[in-house]
Amino acid sequence: MTAVTDTREQAYLDYRDKVAAYIRGKVNDHHEAEDLVSQVFVKVYQNWDSFDENKASLSTWIYTITHNTVVDYYRSRRVLAEYADHMDLEDFAAPEADDRLDLLADALMTLKERERDLIILHYYKGYKLTEVAERMEMSYINAKVIHKKALNKLREKLG
């Protein structure tokens, strides 16, 4: 075995559980989450030569790949469509529905993680705000405040 192969395998052993935990926190479907973990490490292996330890640590690089894989997962499944309908984006000036969804996805990624998680749980997963508050271990009032702030930020970003 080569040193590169050993290093890749060690990266998998060191980060697999952390990557899986992160993804399970974002994707409730166990099978989908496992598929995403596999996708992350395929990307890690395929892009190993592009990793530059002078730019970022290995953990940061793997986290970035993980985060982007989850974002791509939601984009590819058009999970933001329900949310887009709620925001009345039919009137938004983007020429194509895909463009509107991409703009919405980009705007969603500008939110703080807690705000984004709340929006995804409420609009994509379909949880009531009371259920979201419970899942996120916060008060219902706090969930309402975060929800309102997040919607205002999204409206501002989307014009």
Describe this structure in words.
By secondary structure, the protein is an all-alpha fold. It has 2 domains: 3-76, Rna Polymerase Sigma Factor, Chain: A (Orthogonal Bundle), CATH 1.10.1740; 81-158, Arc Repressor Mutant, subunit A. The chain is 74% helix and 0% strand. The protein is built from 8 helices and no strands. It has helices at residues 3-26, 30-46, 58-76, 81-86, 97-109, 113-124, 129-135, 140-158.
Helix and strand pattern: HHHHHHHH
Give the CATH superfamily of the largest domain.
Winged helix-like DNA-binding domain superfamily/Winged helix DNA-binding domain
The percentage of residues in β strands lies in: under 5%
Task: Enumerate the spans where pLDDT stays under 50 for 5 or more consecutive residues.
Answer: 87-95
How many separate domains? 2
Cα distance, first to last residue? 55 Å
Number of strands: 0
Helix content: over 70%
Q: Determine the number of helices (DSSP H or I, runs of at least 4 residues).
A: 8
Taking all residues together, what is the mean pLDDT?
80
Protein structure class:
mainly alpha
Please outline the major beta sheet.
none
Radius of gyration: 18 Å
What kind of oligomer do you see? single chain
What's the CATH architecture of the largest domain? Orthogonal Bundle
From the 3D structure, determine the CATH topology of the largest domain.
Answer: Arc Repressor Mutant, subunit A
Please report the first level of CATH classification, the CATH class of the largest domain: Mainly Alpha
- Large-scale geometry: globular
